[in-house]
Design a protein that fits this description.
Layout lengths: L3 H23 L19 E2 L2 H12 L3 H6 L2 H7 L2 E10 L5 E6 L7 H12 L4 E2 L1 E3 L2 E3 L1 E10 L2
Antiparallel strand pairs: 1-4, 2-3, 2-7, 5-6
Length: about 150
């Protein structure tokens, strides 16, 4: 009854929706009890591929268009041209990140804060923290710096 092209399009759309859903779950807000987080780890979590991959990820996913258009003379005086958003988030045992917050939200342009959060929600899984070689859930702090000119 349905054409082959229709089935391919429907399958592609469904696959796309599944991918979107799984990405959304990666950066979800989860109800994680504070006592389930490990504070003293042997190895800290890190972005897969290291610092270079992290920089590439931010270059591709951090859209500063709204931030730049919102920066008038008042915003430059209030926030400055160099802004640092300090992120706090949880890296779970499987590397998924969740509960992303900006620690110093009042010190950065609101549009920059939105852009940083949007980029982090697109983040792939990280390498989790380790204790005695086993992955553990821990809180992580990561600054994101932008020079707006």
């Amino acid at each position: 009854m349905c054409s082959a092209n229709f089935k391919i399009i429907v399958s592609t759309v469904l696959l796309f929706l599944v991918c979107l859903t799984s990405k959304a779950q990666t950066a979800a807000v989860r109800n994680i009890p504070a006592d389930s987080l490990v504070q003293n780890v042997d190895e800290f979590p890190y972005f897969k591929g290291g610092l270079t991959a992290w920089s590439n990820f931010l270059q591709k996913n951090l859209d500063l268009t709204g931030t730049l258009s919102s920066m008038d003379s008042v915003a430059y005086a209030k926030y400055g041209s160099r802004q640092t958003a300090v992120l706090n988030f949880i890296v779970c045992e499987d590397g998924a990140i969740c509960n992303i917050e900006i620690e110093n939200r009042e010190k950065v342009n609101p549009e920059f804060a939105k852009a940083v959060l949007a980029a982090m929600r697109k983040s792939p899984q990280w390498m989790p923290a380790l204790v005695k070689g086993k992955p553990v859930k821990t809180k992580f702090r990561q600054p994101v710096v932008a020079v707006l000119e």
